[in-house]
Amino acid sequence: MNIKLKSIVAAIAFAASCSAFAADPIKIGVSGPFTGGSSPMGVSMRDGARLATAEINAKGGVMGRKIELVERDDQAENGRGVQVAQELINKERVVATVGYINTGVSLASQRFYQEARIPVINNVSTGSLVTKQFLPPEFADNYIFRNAANDSIQSAMIVKQAIDVNKYTKVAILADSTNYGQLGRADLEKALAAKNITPVAVEKFNVKDVDMTAQLLKAKEAGAQAILTYAIGPELAQIANGMEKLGWKVPMIGSWTLSMGNFIDNAGKNGEGAHMPQTFIQEPNTPKRKAFIDAYLKAYNPANGRIPSPVSAAQGYDSMYILAAAIKQAGDTDGVKIRQALENLQDKVDGVVTNYDHPFTHDDHEAITMNMVVMGKVQDGHVVYANAADKANAVREKDMGKAKK
Amino acid sequence: MEILAQLIVSGIALGMIYALIAFGYQLTFATSGTLNFGQGEALMLGALVGLTLVGHMSYWLMIPLVLVFGALQGIFVERVGVQPAIKTKSEFGWIMTTISLAIIFKNVAENVWGHDDITFPSPLPTSPLQFMGIRVLPMEILVVVGALAIMLAVELFNRKSIYGKAVVATSNDRDAAGLMGINTGMVITFSYALSSMTAAFAGVLIAPLTLTGSTMGVVLGLKAFSVAIIGGLNSGMGVIVGGLILGIAETTTGYYVSTGYKDVPGLLLLLLVLAIKPSGIFGKSVIKKV
């Protein structure tokens, strides 16, 4: 053997021994829209997850192994989401996936994880159906979890704000024609019916519509005192700007997407005062939140010091910590064991949104309950607490009484 | 009554946007029998280039530059996509090339300007004017006036100038015009330049009303295409009337029937026109000589 060959053999042997020591990383999928109209949410979620992963890895990872994120852009399209799911499961062999911003993409893609017995933590998508696709008795175990405020919670809060707090009796609903908008509209109508109120107008529009005159005129003529919305940023901005054009200004109260940067920027002064439910508002009112906000701003330096979608960033960050805790408890990367650990998590997870103490059970896969969600409002281009009391009483733990129901 | 008037006014503004884009389809169809299916993307590029320029100069100064950019973009499309197809007498080659160029333009725009929708600063006050209870945005008036002005300018050019006459001659009979010494290839290139120029102009006109982004042209380009079919691909009057019909049908159906069905009357009309008078309401039916 000549010297060259010897050194190559030695190098290979050395490399092999090294890789035996440093165990393979744990692969976790991240699926979200990083391009298009939903991208402020997708990118914030991804950056939150990256931040958490970097912190976990800096402390030595999980079970002595580093976490590696496999990020894929689902473009907010259902078909693309399905492709991403299949790639992550079959090619990348992820042990779990976090993500999903769009309800439609969640509903279309999760089936593959359920069949492969790999847990999914939905950290942003809000459709009420998302965690209820695979329930017993048809499915023995459900692999779909969520740490976001679902639409039942959000619609109830929107209706509470409009009917109980502001004492309106006539409200109009404006929702877009996507799965998100129409499922949300149904939840809003249900929540209104519980208070014996029928909306005076229920209107629909398409994504990319440029003229909202007809929808707004109908609401105006019906005498609506407020507009309840279920849509995403750009179209919400068209609604706010359309009201200015018609010289008709009533409050906008809607789903959490009213906190999106592309609503706030494109609506400008017309978007001021819009109210929306939020799990997290970019205010450093606890040490944990201050550390999170500082770390995010330092790492990603967003324009105007504003996280594009603070809620998505916080929930993306928390979802990684919950998952890491579950993998640690399971002591294994098998999907079934991770699910069992998630459903009976012993360690408390100190998150940005709340302290997660047993966030899930076998029959309850929703980590966020109504008591954790606060009303935010748009003020001077930022989302702030609508009620000062919420700001002081920042961290609320899961409402078990409600969860057992 | 006031509501109907308000709906019609909004419909007119919307319809003129469609008409202006449809006018671009018509310009190239007249001279070469081909269409630029990237018309919506030409509009989007015009708006985004305008957005970049408007940071350095006033809105009004920016418009001529955007017009020049639009014309160059049209020449590029014609030279790269359409001319080879016409030369080889390919019946449908230009359909594929203009569509694929449109996709390329969209991807380039995504890489240059990003994926998000951006606000275009309005050159006019954003508070509405009021006429007898009807509210109109100053920008909407500018859209209608601007659209009519550029269509009128192009028509006048075609009728009065010697170059315009070459365009008209080529539209009437390309082979005969060629025999008369008109460089018809040049005229077709020119018509593409004009077509993309009007689209780019439409882009900067409507951008302050809508939002600016790489996907803004897709829906508009498609709707304008149905306007061009409804009005007739060889009638300038047709695209204006077709645009107004579609715009007003959308806003009034949205109010009186349901906002979920607002796109239906336009599509029904399209089917009806195709069934009864395929050359469009104002179109002249041409016998194709084989």
Automatic annotation (TrEMBL), chain B:
Keywords: Amino-acid transport, Cell membrane, Membrane, Transmembrane, Transmembrane helix, Transport. The chain crosses the membrane at residues 7-27, 47-72, 92-109, 129-154, 175-194, 200-220, 227-248, 268-287. One of its GO terms (molecular function) is transmembrane transporter activity. It is a multi-pass membrane protein. GO terms for cellular component: plasma membrane. One of its GO terms (biological process) is amino acid transport. It is found in: Cell membrane. The keyword Ribosomal protein does not apply. Coiled coil: none annotated. PANTHER family: AMINO ACID ABC TRANSPORTER PERMEASE PROTEIN (PTHR11795:SF445), BRANCHED-CHAIN AMINO ACID TRANSPORT SYSTEM PERMEASE PROTEIN LIVH (PTHR11795). Belongs to the binding-protein-dependent transport system permease family. LivHM subfamily. This is High-affinity branched-chain amino acid transport system permease protein LivH.
